[in-house]
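Homework help board

Subject: predicted structure for assignment chain

Our instructor gave us this sequence and asked us to write out the predicted structure in token form, then describe one feature. I got the tokens but I'm not sure how to describe them. Can anyone check?
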Amino acid sequence: MTERELDGLRLIGRGATNTEIGQELYISEGTVKTHVGRIFSKLGLRDRAAAVVFAFDHGLVRPES
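My token output:
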């Protein structure tokens, strides 16, 4: 997985929308969709909920206090 895809996964894990991810990473929403699709494919994930669980389980995001 590329560093940019990891950045996207971290943001998905925080609940960011595609629009918010694009704004944060300075990329178009179309590029975000491409990254999200690649993330799902590479990790064998079905949806954003599974991506959130993956991100937490692998320490990419932490619960906020």
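Reply (TA_rk): Your tokens look well-formed. For the description, you could write something like this. The domain at 3-57 is CATH 1.10.10.10 (Arc Repressor Mutant, subunit A). That's the kind of observation they're looking for.
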